[in-house]
Amino acid sequence: MTFDDFYFDYGLMDALDAMGFSKPTPIQELAIPVILEHKDLIACAQTGTGKTAAYVLPILNKIAESDHSHLNTLILAPTRELAMQIDQQVQGFSYYIQVSSIPIYGGGDGASWDQQKKALKHGADIIIATPGRLISQLISGDINFEHLEHLVLDEADRMLDMGFYEDIVKIISYLPKDRQTLLFSATMPPKIRTLASKILYKPEEISIAISKPAEGILQQAYLTYDPQKIPLLGEIFKATAYQSVIIFAGTKEKVKSLQFELKKIGLKAKSFHSDLEQKEREDLMNEFRSRKVQVLIGTDILSRGIDVDGIDLVVNFDVPPDPEDYVHRIGRTARAETKGTAITFINEKDQRRFHAIETLIEKEIPKLPLPESLGQAPLYEPSKRVERTFHKKGPRKNTNGPSKPGQFRR
Fold first, then answer.
1. CATH (domain of 17)
2. In terms of domains, do 227 and 198 share one?
3. 241 is in which domain, residue-wise?
4. Per-residue pLDDT tens over the stretch 176-229
5. Which pLDDT score, from 0 to 100, does residue 114 have?
6. Span 129-142, pLDDT tens digits
7. 142-168 b/e (C-beta count within 10 Å ≥ 16 → b)
8. Residue 289 clears pLDDT 50, i.e. is over it
């Protein structure tokens, strides 16, 4: 199958040709006909499968073929980075047709707020919004959704994980009931099913390659104690000249500290986190895309909100608690049928988590030996329960008598 089989508008086909799109991905091949038939849809597809184009292309085709003069489509996304990424794709695909779009997200100045408000009130064809900022705009003024035809929830599972359920329900209360609703999610837990049952009408369902990393990803792991992780990163970069790297850590605080630790060993690393202003985030992403920044450090939110080609290495500095997040993290590399490497550091406490990942993807990931200079590594014993160590600050005062350090009375 090629895109010619969908009989898209000529201007849309010109854009696809200019962008080098010839054959649809599996999710596009299955989803586009359903959307063109104006049916509601639940699609389970992970990042990197072409899901954005799967809904953007048929919606653009509908708008191009209609006599439109109103807000036509609302796309909800969990993060500003994803909202901007979707908007960039809309602009690319609509280059030869008369369709306008604007992303609505927080973190900007007063001018961006006013620009977003004007677009909502007077009509871009497509609005791509984060739920929180859209709620703020809805409260502050009159926005006319009367003629809205399409609602898209992209990465719905991540939006619910981030606590946007009530916001989504409130936003939907402003929308006409007679609309087409498309829900895209990387996973399909019960809470997504519950939401879908409330907002979709007799939906078609599609599931594509759930929780299976791309074949082009070379997956490796090291068993390591925490103090060995930074020196191990240094050894990895000495061995291979990686040009574009993402390192995932478990917390925002860890992300910040890693930036300074990596600079000490000579790596051009910068951290990406929620404390940065929007302008700082955009500048950082531009530097990363242009290879001015070699290493980008972030948490799991970054794993679904970044679209950068040519990332040749992903490092899991910490094993993610959710096996699904492992798939999203390493999916940043080996995109569009390219090759890439994913390396995970496994300390003694994270071995059970990593075993859960191997169970999910139905593959045992090779455990490479540590360089001799770093000393001995932990044994891989995922079935062994590791007790957490709690550091006591000294003796507790007790009215019943003296206590020894570490001793506690009931």
1. 3.40.50.300
2. no
3. 217-374
4. 999 999 999 988 888 899 999 999 999 999 988 555 777 889 999 999 999 999
5. 73
6. 999 888 888 887 66
7. ebebeebbbbbbbbbbbbbbbebbebb
8. yes
Ramachandran sector of residue 48 (left: φ over 0; alpha: ψ -120 to 50; beta: rest): left
Query: Which one of 184, 208, 232 terminates a domain?
Result: 208
pTM for this entry: 0.64
355, two tokens? 């075993």
Question: 372: pLDDT confidence band, cut at 50, 70 and 90?
Answer: very high
